[in-house]
Write a structure and sequence with these properties.
mainly alpha; 16 helices; transmembrane; 0% strand; globular
């Protein structure tokens, strides 16, 4: 990835924070997800909920950052896709292959299965390493970015607000489904009900574009609104997990309020975005400023590699304490720091952009 001499420090901070939060979410999974996707109940799950309800906003924050910098697309589609997909797809394929053989060397799969998983990459991520789903989603957003850009260039503020309002309603649908399993034309033969085209993570990209266009400068309302959204959104996210913990048998039943496409997680993400977007640093060339920028630049590589190191630190540190209260932040922080150092080392290799992005 090329370094930008005019970087937005606040958004670098936001990207670093989101990168760490993803790692903490995955660390917490050891302490409430069983081997068959069943729920492990107990004190550790309480700490997972307390710590990681705020961290569920990490993926939405990444998507918002993508929209903030990307929309509207100015390049011709061919040039845009060439730049984006080269930077994203080639490292992704490298790490899919790496994870296939990583699982083989850990004894999780045999050699034939490892090779078969590599061949499956065009169909879906070729290994059962869950975090790789994100790259397929990101590529889908890239595909749609040039399509939505002409509308954004000409759309009025009210038109964008109308879209965001309908999108916000779709974020409530997971809760409406608790009362009405099928709404607005949903049925087994119709995969595109009434508001289908307004739903999904694309809304976070449009939201970020809206905030950049109409609320990029520091506003007096940023702080109180940001805090209110963060606190209320966090409470809903935490409370839903907490209430379902005693009755849910499997993870999908437990994580209803943890979904990226829920109104509460969107509130948390928007709140954090508003609170951080206007952070300034007096000296971007200071050691702290350079470190934040460097971690931000290498965040994609950190994301790709971190599961390998997370498993290592879990094996090393899980017996550190009986309580996830201590283990989650310690393991997550060790994984985050070591992932950065590994990607930093790889960045010195020739053609490293094809490995770390």
């Amino acid at each position: 990835m090329q370094k930008d001499t005019k970087r937005n420090f606040a958004l670098d901070v936001l990207r670093v924070l989101a990168c760490y939060m993803v790692i903490q979410v995955h660390t917490g999974e050891f302490y409430y997800i069983g081997p068959i996707g069943d729920v492990i109940k107990g004190e550790n799950a309480f700490w997972v909920d307390l710590y990681n309800s705020v961290c569920r906003s990490a993926v939405p924050l990444f998507v918002m950052l993508t929209g903030y910098f990307l929309l509207p697309v100015k390049d011709e589609p061919a040039q845009f896709f060439r730049k984006r997909f080269t930077r994203v797809v080639i490292p992704f394929i490298f790490w899919c292959i790496a994870y296939s053989f990583y699982q083989f060397f850990r004894g999780q799969v045999d050699f034939t299965t490892a090779c078969t998983n590599i061949l499956k990459i065009p169909v879906n991520f070729g290994t059962q390493v869950g975090h790789l789903w994100y790259v397929y989603m990101l590529m889908g957003l890239y595909l749609f970015a040039p399509i939505i850009s002409p509308w954004l260039k000409t759309a009025s503020r009210k038109s964008i607000e109308l879209y965001l309002g309908i999108w916000a309603f779709t974020l409530c649908v997971p809760y409406i489904h608790l009362l009405f399993p099928d709404i607005l034309g949903e049925c087994f033969w119709n995969g595109t009900p009434m508001l289908y085209y307004f739903s999904g993570l694309l809304g976070y990209m449009v939201l970020a574009y809206y905030l950049r266009t109409y609320a990029s400068e520091r506003k007096s309302w940023n702080l109180p609104v940001g805090i209110a959204l963060l606190v209320v959104g966090y409470f809903i996210t935490w409370y839903g997990f907490h209430e379902r913990l005693s009755t849910a048998e499997y993870v999908p039943q437990l994580e209803i309020t943890w979904g990226y496409e829920t109104i509460n997680v969107a509130m948390v993400a928007t709140g954090i975005f508003l609170l951080i977007k206007n952070i300034r640093i007096k000296s971007p060339d200071s050691s702290c400023g350079k470190l934040v920028t460097d971690i931000s630049i290498k965040s994609y590589g950190i994301y790709l590699i971190h599961i390998m190191l997370l498993n290592l630190f879990y094996d090393l540190l899980n017996n550190l304490s009986d309580s996830a209260m201590i283990k989650i932040p310690v393991i997550a922080l060790c994984t985050f720091v070591t992932s950065y150092l590994m990607i930093k080392a790889l960045s010195y290799l020739p053609k490293s952009k094809y490995i770390i992005g």
